[in-house]
């Protein structure tokens, strides 16, 4: 439960003075529901006030600072406002209008005495008007700040109102003990949390307070991940050490790359420990992760345990099985598959084999972790394409068991280092940074879709020479049905040209079994062209296919394009990727496609994608709702996440229960950023 001291901050906005249902509704549109949301709704910049000698058309609607001399007071009767007429420096008459507090207004604006007024200049009939101006003594006028913090607004809330609300919310900010390592705080010259918040609201352009607040947020993220790690590794795992009797018999037509060798070494090192492994394996498409996974699984089997490999889609699960089955059978390792499609007898026999230990390796989709799937001795879980599984799912996997299995997560999405930190910070990272030898880099062309006819002609020549090709149609609409229809149209066109039986189609609306059938006929060469929506994005391996055409390429993320391009260039033939672009291409759109043409470096592409589109797209977490940062910018994260990780680690090393004074403060920081679940982990342990 959240500590009491934070309750005022987490109160609904209605609790603030003068906030009724109208404002509440308006604030909700900005997702500002509680005082703390307002506190962290930082101004984004400043508005400039204009110091002017007199009112003029050009200043209409702007915030002006004018010297005026009041000449007449017209008191309001009934509900009519008080009006004070004044002359500006050009002898215009200006109406200063007050709907409330007339006595105060009259005192502020005595007749025939020059004053400075500040407010938004309106036209009222023929006259200039300022409603509720701020009034300042001339003496002070030179000190009028010509800048004012501006907030993100919505209809029904003025900037002034938003600022008042922010200030009211700020009053609820309690004094809290410091959670940042004192030496870091000193070195960076950061203000304390409370002072930092106040300063960020009063001076949006000052960088130190903002940095500090960004750091808090990143620190909470890192601390939560480190707690996750602590919990995941608190239970004893089972050390697994192979003797090479199986892996030694593998018949490989090639040698491991140095990178593969290094990485498998790291994995074996982890598996030999009695702490469960938590390792993320990153390697670009085609870098040979499957073999690494197999070696890790054989390590487990040699040590008398079972291994399970989790794939994100059925197609991928079947492909893994097909690849691994051959190798496993040759060395007497028993492998099985379990997806939503295995039913009845087949399913029963798999379940039995898992329970009695006659199955060594299980490949499958998430079906392999359903309730009634019991393993005799599960020692290792491999998750392929990790980015589709969130933090909570990872935790679930290890929480179930008394002795959690070792966990190896693999991803072909090159994840920029900063994102690795903020999303997989609890894991150790291995990278395969080297491609198997003998690959010819894929040649990438960007072609206008006006030349569709030429491209189809080219495809014809490619097919005539015995080649195969992917044709990718984008997911454009929100509706899969419409996208599927577009893909069907394209398939129809290509079938007219190349023949009914040479063109296959897979899309997201098809049943798994049907998709598999089409994939299978493409893989065995019956089909020349595979028309697909992005379902082929991940992992599919057909080495004879050396051409990929991507329609509407500008609509894809760069990382996605890179994945798609990774479908080709797997065989000996020189490969090509044709990016068909639309007519209306923005400047960035052009730059992005140019980058694809220029580089094959997945990490460079990922960094660029991160810069252009934000983390949700790369990690595929937009739907799963893993939260993004509120205060911290991408640059802040890049700069501060490594620092925060070190800080969080150090704190937990010294004080794993977060019981010390600083530990207690850090708990508050977790609550502030709603990492309640992370604190919960602490309790349960
Ligand atoms: P990914 O990392 O994308 O999962 P794969 O494991 O599918 O890559 O490997 C891509 C291709 O490279 C496969 O056909 C595989 O047999 C081959 N391969 C893997 N390791 C090597 C190696 N050391 N030398 C040559 N080819 C390799
Ligand atoms: Mg793979």
Automatic annotation (TrEMBL):
Protein name listed in UniProt: Probable DNA 3'-5' helicase RecG
Gene3D superfamilies registered for this protein in UniProt: Nucleic acid-binding proteins, P-loop containing nucleotide triphosphate hydrolases
Keywords: ATP-binding, DNA damage, DNA repair, DNA-binding, Helicase, Hydrolase, Nucleotide-binding
Domain Helicase ATP-binding, chain residue ranges per copy: 270-432
Segments forming domain Helicase C-terminal: 455-611
SUPFAM superfamilies: Nucleic acid-binding proteins (SSF50249), P-loop containing nucleoside triphosphate hydrolases (SSF52540)
A molecular-function term among this protein's GO annotations: DNA binding
Pfam families: DEAD, Helicase_C, RecG_dom3_C, RecG_wedge
Cross-referenced PROSITE patterns: HELICASE_ATP_BIND_1 (PS51192), HELICASE_CTER (PS51194)
GO biological process: DNA repair
Organism superkingdom: Bacteria
Keyword Cell division: no
